[in-house]
Design a protein that fits this description.
The protein is of the alpha+beta class. It is built from 2 helices and 6 strands. The radius of gyration is 16 Å and the shape is globular. Keywords: Cytoplasm, NADP, Oxidoreductase, Queuosine biosynthesis.
Length: 153
Amino acid sequence: MAHDHGSLTKLGHSASLPASPEEAELERVENPHADTHYVARFTCPEFTSLCPVTGQPDFAHLVIDYVPDGWLVESKSLKLYLASFRNHGAFHEDCTVRIGKDLVSLLEPHWLRIGGYWYPRGGIPIDVFWQTGPVPEGVWLPDQGVPPYRGRG
């Protein structure tokens, strides 16, 4: 699942969209500031997957915050990994938590959280939040900035 800086296969190369998350390959690079606790944030405002029952598309705004240790996720591989969910059938909770756990497995960060702000399915929005534990002391953690769903109100 992981590649180190010397063997990156996505960054700087032509890369096709993986057909599924199982085929996607997350890559990592060395953190040049491993001695410093800071938050790195990735926002994916147009995440899509499929309902495993109806096959209809589901849409979410994902926000991933993490405090890296020795590794950073390589952003192009993350974009391809997230896009690989577009034909993947899974419930909101499964997609959100799986992405968080896959990143933790790859990066072994000090801390990670993911917020999945899903658009309504059947008239009900489902938001999913997961984190690895308490935020490390002294880390500035901004709000994820995504308001609760209010429809046309």
